[in-house]
Amino acid sequence: MLIKVRTSADLPYSKVTPEPVYRSRREFIKTTAAGAAGVIAGTIAAGGCSAPSAAQAALPPAKKWPLSADPAVDAPNTVEQITGFTNFFEFGESKDDPIRYADRMKIAPWTVKVDGLVDKPADYGIESLVDFKQLEERVYRHRCVEGWSMVMPWIGVPLSSVIAKVQPKSTAKFVEFTTLNRPSEMPGIGTAGIKFPYIEGLRLDEAMHPLTLMVVGLYGKVLPNQTGAPLRVHIPWKYGFKSAKSIVRIRFTDTQPHTTWPAEYGEAYGFYANVNPTVDHPSWSQARERRLPNPLKIRTTQMFNGYGDQVASLYKGMDLRKFY
Ligand SMILES: Nc1nc2c(c(=O)[nH]1)N[C@H]1C(S)=C(S)[C@@H](COP(=O)(O)O)O[C@H]1N2
Ligand SMILES: [Mo]
Questions:
Q1: Which of 243, 246, 269, 284 has most ligand 1 atoms within 8 Å of CB, for mutation?
Q2: CATH code (residue 33)
Q3: Mutate to test the pocket of ligand 1, among 185, 196, 245 (most ligand atoms within 8 A of CB)
Q4: Which has the closest alpha carbon to 113: 45, 32, 183, 179?
Q5: Which residues line ligand 1 (CB under 6 A)?
Q6: Ligand 1 center from residue 231 Cα (angstroms)
Q7: Is the residue at 12 inside a domain?
Q8: What's the CA gap between 215 and 42, in Å, rounded?
Q9: Residue 320 in domain
Q10: Per residue of the chain (324 residues), what is the pLDDT tens digit?
């Protein structure tokens, strides 16, 4: 007789570890590391729902970027892994809500409002911001605050090339990204416990850094909706939450933008959010990470997610414990 033992791996992630740690003030449930690992493995294995790629339109060819993560140790995750386990609270709080509901979002037509301290403010179509003849595929490490990491072969253009088209004024010091807030297509709006629209931001020199990517695709195709279609950023030396998805407005300003996570739970999430193994989250150590899909594969977290030789100079003289 086979006795089925219910393990933590059978539980949906949402039942065990509410990631949105804004809740931790109220009702945070602490899980053991091993328990959480089992749950993550279960969620990915159950992977469940549909792999998104069949219907996605193909992109023009992208140049392979030479400075990829080391392919020997950093094999890219599959499209199923990347799209099946992610945060996009507009579709719900669980890692597997976005793959279930994100296809409700209409991504065409799409305009991006560019405003603030900029010489060419306008409502732009995507093709006027992104040069689809210059696409690059960059294999980037991705590290989340909750302790997991993946490797993602994003396709896009340097954000600096987008910014150059709209010409910020010399007084601009920051760039703010506002993302789509459309309750009729986004069932998490109204149920997820954070305020919408989701807002992110960067210092202008971070935004102009050659590693910062404006992403439009994944594995040769336009972005699956739950990864932030049609336009999202990725900043590989920062925690995953800095990567705003489904951007509808880019605003240039001389003051630090009021971004979502520091407003919801500032003790845990700072504006900078540089990957830093020595600054712990109130609920988690940041010294190690679990490379999905195998949560038992534990790695040491690297300062700036391993991109320190390229980005550390941006923060010279700053106390990175204070500006976390
Ligand atoms: N619009 C929007 N963007 C968002 C989020 C969100 O809820 N809404 N979540 C953030 C968080 S918390 C993470 S970890 C990353 C996850 O997506 P990725 O794995 O594709 O980077 O998206 C970020 N961008
Ligand atoms: Mo996150």
A1: 243
A2: 3.90.420.10
A3: 245
A4: 179
A5: 86-90, 142, 144, 179, 198, 227, 240-241, 243-246
A6: 12
A7: no
A8: 29
A9: no
A10: 343 333 333 333 333 333 343 333 333 333 334 444 444 444 444 443 444 455 689 999 999 987 666 766 788 999 999 999 999 999 999 999 999 999 999 999 999 999 999 999 999 999 999 999 999 999 999 999 999 999 999 999 999 999 999 999 999 999 999 999 999 999 999 999 899 999 999 999 999 999 999 999 999 999 999 999 999 999 999 999 999 999 999 999 999 999 999 999 999 999 999 999 999 999 889 999 999 999 899 999 999 999 999 999 999 999 999 999
**Is 276 among the domain residues?**
yes
Cα 152 to Cα 155: distance, rounded to the nearest angstrom = 9
- Ligand 1 centre to CA of 178 (Å) is 12
Reported pTM = 0.87
**From the CA of 119, how far away is ligand 2's center (Å)?**
33
**For residue 302, how far is its CA from the centre of ligand 1 (angstroms)?**
21
Q: Which residue has the CA at smallest separation from atom 20 of ligand 1?
A: 227
Which single residue is written with the structure tokens 């998805």?
Answer: 245
> Both ends of the chain: CA-CA distance in Å?
54
Total of domains in the chain: 1
How many residues in the chain?
A: 324
Amino acid letter at 73? Answer: V
- Pairwise CA distance, residues 215 & 138, whole Å: 10
For 38, the domain range is 20-315
